[in-house]
Specification:
The complex is a heterodimer of chains A (270) and B (267).
Chain A (H helix, E strand, L loop, with lengths): L2 H8 L14 H19 L3 H22 L5 H34 L2 H6 L4 H31 L9 H22 L3 H18 L11 H9 L1 H13 L7 H24 L3
Chain B lengths: L1 H7 L11 H19 L4 H19 L9 H34 L2 H5 L5 H31 L9 H22 L3 H18 L11 H9 L1 H13 L7 H24 L3
The chains are: A mainly alpha (270), B mainly alpha (267).
Amino acid sequence: MDAQAAATSLQPGIGAPLEHLRRGPAWWLRSYTLMLRFDLSSQRAWLPTAVALQILMGAGMAIIYGFYIPHLPRVAVLYLVTGAPALALVPLGLVFVPTVIGQQRTAGTYDFLWSLPVPRAAGVASTLTITTLLAIPGIVATLLLAMWRYGVELSISPMVVPAFLLTALMASSVGVGLAHLIGNPVVTNLITNILVFVVLLYSPIAFPRSQFPTWLANIHEVLPLYHMGVVVRASLTTGLVTDVATSYFVLAAWTFAGWLATAWVVGRRP
Amino acid sequence: MTARVIAAAPSVTLPRPRFGPVNWLRSYLVVTRWQLASLRLVLPVLAAVEILAGVGFVFGFGLFFPGSIPARSVLYLSTGAPVITLYLVGLVLVPQVVGQQKLAQTYDFVQSLPVPRSAGFAAWYSMNLLLGVPAMVASLVAAAFRYNAALHVSLAVIPATMLICLTSTAIGYAIGHAIPLPMLANTLVQVLNFFVFGFSAVVFPADQLPAWLAAVNSGLPFEAMGTVMRAALSTVPVEGVAGAYALLAAWLAAGLLVAAAAVMRRG
């Protein structure tokens, strides 16, 4: 759109039709692609850091667990390697996304972003798209590193595509929901830092849930962390995982909860 | 009012001399009070986080093991967790606070206060001990309770604790003051934390690491911190304790030199 068209569209009385109607699927799609470009260009300095953070946490933790435990049985190694991709998603959803949004609040650009003339859902969808796709190279690299470190052969099924996509989308959605729900960036920072610590020590992602006390195992029935591990593991191995449907359902529910929380905050008018 | 003060000035005695042990001690007390007051809102939270992190690490560690934890792992965990708590506070707190001062542009003001720079360091050290020791005790109690760790506390625990805290404070002080960019200092601290947490032989024996990583570790201070603490807390014979003390002393000297160069520099 050039300057002249913009000028005429400001004077509809003269006869030129309005350039765009600000509703309908075409408008939404156009807003979405615009926001994608906007987000990509404003976050591009961060993107390599995010991938590095994921590999550091995912592959790093998989390797560290191996140092902690002197003699790993073969099944434990298999759990470790197939848990690594899910571990790599934890810092993305719990650290990276809340940090980026927290910085928008600190820098004062948060309100500006919501004032842009695009549907707010298109803005959120663009953030989720970028963080979900961003997660894929990190989790693939993590998996390859862990396989190389432990010399494990995996039987990769086509289910790896929905498994990786859903877990990444879930992590991003919960991260976005968390960041919007908690207004104060300092509080968000504190919560995410504690959560990462708790997740790395107390979640049955990289080792079997049977090693956990019953009460903790029960808590992990409803939290998404254990189910992330299950879904990823099912797509990479045969015979280790039995009940995948429940895990997919729980992950979908958490994704939806993240969207609801975001919609509630973002749709509100102060 | 002002005129009278100026007029009275000739008869007023000169201010106290700003040197000598009495001045240093007084400065130390004043800076300690200053720091306690300026951090009063975060100190309780930090103390709680420290204790939770120490105890949480001890409890969580056992979940990694498929069966019961081998006695050797219990020994390393129960004597390594106190080191992690002491080291964490020393390394993390100074760069964080100094970084915030630099961002808020109060750093130069704080550095301009008329107290010896060494008194400032001593105040930090006292505060780190105050935060680290309760967490260390809590992690020891947790290990004894959860894993029946056979600990035997000897008097050597006092120099070991003091030296571990002093060395980590000196390293943290050097990082916080010598690196001009707070973001860079914070990133370095986080990478170091991750390294100590997973890649240095503090909570597990060095022979569980690949040979090259074990070799790297033998020159860094973290494994040595584990060694002196283990020697002080158990009856199991520990090798290379004297060497570990010497290595820690060398890192302490290096940290103090770098920190001194950074805080004594005149811009």
